[in-house]
User: Fold this.
Amino acid sequence: MGNRFQNTNSEQISWPQSKNISLAQSEQTPRRFAIIIGNNKYENKKLENCVNDATELAASLESVNYKVTLQTNVTCDEMHQCIRDFTDSIQANDFIIFFFAGHGVQWGNQNYLLPCGCKKLDSRDDMERYAFNAQTILDTMVEKEPKCIVFLLDCCREYWLPKHKRGDAVDQGLTPMKLSTETLIAFACAAGETANDSSYGSKNGTFTKHLLENIKIPGLDVMKLMQRVTRGVKKETRNAQQPYLVSSITEDIYIVPAETIQATKSTPTIRKPLSANTHNQLTREKQSYESAADDSATSQLVPSKGSDEMAHSTSNASVKYKLATAAAFRRKRALVIGINEYARHRLRYCINDAKDLGEALQRIGFHVSSAYDCDRNDFNRSIASFAEGTSSDDLTLFYFCGTGFQYNDDLFLMPSNYDDPYNGPDPVYLKHNAISAQLIVEQITDRSCRVLILIYDSCRCYAQTKIRTRGVAETSKLTSMRSPTETIELFSCKPGMNASDTSVNGRNSIFMGTLLEYIDTPHLDIEEIFQMVTASVRTQTRGCQIPERRSDLTKAVYLAN
Assistant:
């Protein structure tokens, strides 16, 4: 297939080339590098265990053949030099781990990492001069085109704290960072929480303690690894600290590949959407450790067997084990909302997308509520009615397809009667005429559902251009919703990209058409489904639209058993 896609409206869709979108991997085994930084000796609030964290993580990674750069208690100049030298050494196809333990601070929607010896920071100029912008570090590494970056931040977003904690996230504080492809960022805590500098029976911070317990397990992909870490941290802190991750990874990524997995010889676990006759056969190569429900047992690797159309299929024993250790639900409920008709523009496929998703969910046992082209009053009534019916053992899914706008750390969803004459971020108009996604989450989680799945097929700005898109996501402020419930979010595009309202099949957007291929596949957990959707949308649009997901799940979640 060439550079164009044709839909049934005879409309040619041209996707420009992007240098970072190729999924073809080199036959050469990726070099594995890590830079590990731990700072204790701050002038104002010394920490106790960051150096221990860095030293022990470095030793663990060295023991599994990583080349490690370890720096502890570094000043501003020393930290600048070691990061620059490390970044300069990165080559295409390298596997990179970045880890920082110490104080962090959020300022102006950016996350800054603090070296030792820095004085009190009172302004953005102070931050830029004496601290390190985490987004800038990541962007510089991405320019080297490594195979994958795992970016681990065991710190929070505020410096001046009592009782030896590593920083309090400010009230609206967790600022998810902008991702490139094949990047995972893990924060030690979510918004409004603290990252403890100690843990029970250990000389490590709580996050790093559980990271060390799991990071050397062969064949455990990084998403499952972070589920284990999240579960351990939440259990030890009684939910006072909750790790949080953001990912654009499109294939299985192993910190330590299992000897039985031919990771350097097989093709990536990325598939184009299959036909309706075959998508129910789809599965992924599964040779990884799964944790038991009590978080104490470790499963055995199960060899996979071949198939003509699938890369591999999982054995019956493996499937049974996966389901036995997955989250359990009494009911599955969903609310789908699609809006085509707006006062100042019209979208084409949002209602189709919402209806088709609702039908797919019904086929796998969901009770589905829906609303189409709803004004603000109907939108709010639909949310209130849906939230009222939620109970503590429910698997709950909310889907919105339409136009969105982000302002002041909140995502606003536009009802059909939204008609801001200025098309801009007027906070008063937004508050009274749009729907806050954060308030939707709070209404649902007030009922304490077991797991909440949020799918936003929209972008983060009000559509003003002549091309048909669902908005353009801002480049620096893509914000996730804060939720006490275990939550996974899927955005149809990353910051700085369009959520396209164009279609390949003539009925659904590219994003939804792809999601429908996978959503009702048995024995695929939601992380796997979202990973496949991300890979396929990225491939179909030649990197012009890349979905992004965020998660604090502690167990696998299966939509179709």
User: Anything to note?
Assistant: The first strand starts at residue 4 and ends at 6. The domain at 32-247 is CATH 3.40.50.1460 (Rossmann fold).
